[in-house]
Design goal:
2 copies of one chain form a homodimer.
Chain A lengths: L1 E6 L8 H14 L2 E4 L14 H15 L2 E5 L10 H12 L4 E5 L5 H8 L3 E3 L2 E3 L15 H10 E5 L12 H13 L6
Parallel strand pairs in A: 1-2, 1-3, 3-4, 4-7
Antiparallel strand pairs in A: 5-6
């Protein structure tokens, strides 16, 4: 059975374990085994740092995984969770197919604009600090969107804000796409 | 001469080319060749998307690079620029040593707290949405800090806010560390 690394900021929810269980059940329904970061019982040996133990445990899960599905819903700002984005890059570097979803439909520039006024500059838009705001109709920084186009797929869904990190419609769309793009996997 | 991929949100500055030139000059002073994303003249063939052309050009530079230095200064939120974080993960996955710097000394939870009140919950801190805020004394999400500890090094410097994306003190510290950790490179 192919394994799927389940990346996303839902690990920070109070009910993180329950979300992980639901994701793993959906994986099984599509013929995959889901590897969820919280599955690691982190108990570092005396004196070792907890954060480094978590890092190594996640790295081990990622190495074991055949593919990755990343929850790239905006997190504490207009972009996705930094830990999830790091893991996305890592999986691409390791040559694994990656699928991503976001539970917000607005594109990147719309979310930046919601927080501050943008200034027009020769056909571009700049933020209050003078920094260019990408305007390619993407959900996030172009490296993220284009990586998913090149190495797997991206699903965008509008989800009620109260369920921003719990709704699994986009996650299931990624599972369907993973099944379609790997015909050896039977549902 | 070893090549260094120069990742960071300074590509969004109005004077991005000038910053890139300064970074490349510093690279030469330390015996490296700096590969700066803007060096790519992006002119996609008829009908091709500009964002995908930029992605492929950056990917080519990253594949050519022997090591990476990432500007992880917080960007539009408490975490680093998502594009830079993606590239950091990609370089780790490709087995390249990576060095990072940030021009803000505060740790992650201090920056999240500056934007909203946090709630204590059984020894943890949660944000207004109930999501756990990591409190390991790291500069960013633990995956980023721990990756740099494991695969290169991290430099943190307090820089005047006006120079947040231009100050190269941390960048130069990364160059020094890269030289020290690769004794075959002579300054």
């Amino acid at each position: 059975m192919l394994t799927v690394y389940l990346a996303g900021p839902e690990v920070f929810l109070p009910d993180a374990a329950e979300i992980g269980r639901r994701k793993q059940e959906l994986c099984v329904a599509y013929g995959f085994e889901g590897l969820y970061p919280l599955d690691n019982k982190i108990a570092p040996a005396g004196g070792a740092r907890v954060d480094q133990a978590i890092y190594r445990a996640n790295l081990d899960l990622i190495r074991r995984a055949d593919i990755g599905i990343c929850n790239l819903t905006p997190f504490r700002g207009p972009s996705a969770d930094a830990g999830t984005v790091y893991e996305l890059g890592l999986m691409v570097g390791l040559g694994k197919p990656v699928y991503g979803y976001t539970n917000v439909m607005d594109d990147y520039i719309a979310r930046v604009r919601a927080g501050q006024e943008l200034v027009a500059d020769k056909g571009d838009w700049r933020d209050a600090a003078g920094l260019l705001v990408e305007d390619f109709g993407n959900a996030d920084n172009l490296m993220i969107d284009c990586a998913l186009v090149a190495h797997g797929g991206y699903a965008m869904f509008r989800t009620p804000a109260t369920d921003l990190y719990r709704d699994l419609t986009g996650f299931e769309a990624c599972l369907r796409r993973a099944v379609q793009s790997r015909p050896r996997v039977s549902v």
